[in-house]
Design a protein that fits this description.
This protein is of the alpha+beta class. It has two domains: 2-140, PH-domain like; 146-179, no CATH class. The protein is built from six helices and eight strands; from the N terminus they run E-E-H-H-E-E-E-E-H-E-E-H-H-H. The chain has helices at residues 20-28, 34-48, 85-89, 115-140, 146-162, 168-179; strands at residues 2-4, 7-12, 50-54, 57-61, 69-72, 76-82, 92-99, 106-113. The strands form two sheets. It has a five-stranded antiparallel beta sheet with strand order 1-2-3-4-5, with no helix packed on it. The two termini are 54 Å apart.
C-alpha cells in the first residue's frame, strides 16, 4: 500500500502468469540472443500498465496503446472474471468491471494474480462505499425545524385550553416552556 498526499491506494501490475506464452517463447529464443531482447520488451510492456485501487475509485494508468481510465466504486454494476484454460491453471485472469455510470464503459484489470480474491475485495469495497453513500444521504435529509415543532406543540396546547380541557394555570405554565 502506498501513501501519496494522504490518499491511500494499492498499486497492481499485470502478473507474469498472464504473459506465460510470451515468456515461454522468449525463453526458447534466448540462445539466439533475440530472446533476451524479447524478455526485456515483455517485462517492460507488462510494467507500463498500472492499476491503482483507491478507497472510492480504480484508476488505470497506461502506455501508448492503452489509454488511462477511471471508474468510481459506486458506478460498478457487475464484476466478472475472464480466464483462458492456462490462466485457470496458473490462477490468473482478467477482471471486468462494468460501469453503470454515465459512460457505460467497462474497465478490464488485465493479468491479475488470484482474480477471485481480488474480485471479492472489490465487491466488499463497493458495498462499503454504497453503505457510506447511503449514510451520507440519510444525514443530509432535512430535519424538522425545532421552531416549527414548538409552534405545532403550542397550537396543540392552545387547542386544549380553548376546549377547556386544561386550566388557565396549566396553560400558562406549559406556555412558558415553549417561550424558552
Amino acid at each position: 500500500m502506498n501513501n501519496t498526499d494522504s490518499n491511500k491506494f494499492i498499486e497492481l501490475v499485470p502478473g507474469w502468469r498472464s504473459y506465460f506464452w510470451y515468456y515461454l517463447g522468449a525463453a526458447i529464443l534466448v540462445p539466439l540472443i533475440i530472446g533476451i531482447v524479447l524478455l526485456w520488451l515483455i517485462h517492460r510492456h507488462r510494467h507500463r500498465i498500472v492499476y491503482r485501487i483507491y478507497e472510492n475509485r480504480i484508476v488505470r494508468r497506461g502506455n501508448d496503446k492503452i489509454k488511462p481510465a477511471m471508474i468510481d466504486l459506486l458506478d460498478i454494476g457487475e464484476i466478472r472474471i475472464q480466464q483462458t484454460w492456462i490462466e485457470k491453471r496458473l490462477d490468473s485472469g482478467t477482471i471486468v468491471l462494468v460501469n453503470t455510470g454515465g459512460s457505460g464503459d467497462s474497465l478490464h484489470l488485465l493479468g491479475m494474480y488470484r482474480p477471485g480474491d481480488l474480485e471479492k475485495m472489490i465487491r466488499q469495497s463497493v458495498e462499503r462505499e454504497r453503505r457510506i453513500q447511503k449514510s451520507r444521504e440519510e444525514k443530509v435529509q432535512p430535519k424538522e425545524d425545532p421552531a416549527s415543532l414548538s409552534l405545532d406543540n403550542m397550537d396543540y396546547l392552545t387547542g386544549l385550553w380553548q376546549q377547556g380541557l386544561i386550566s388557565n394555570e396549566d396553560f400558562e405554565k406549559e406556555r412558558k416552556h415553549f417561550e424558552k
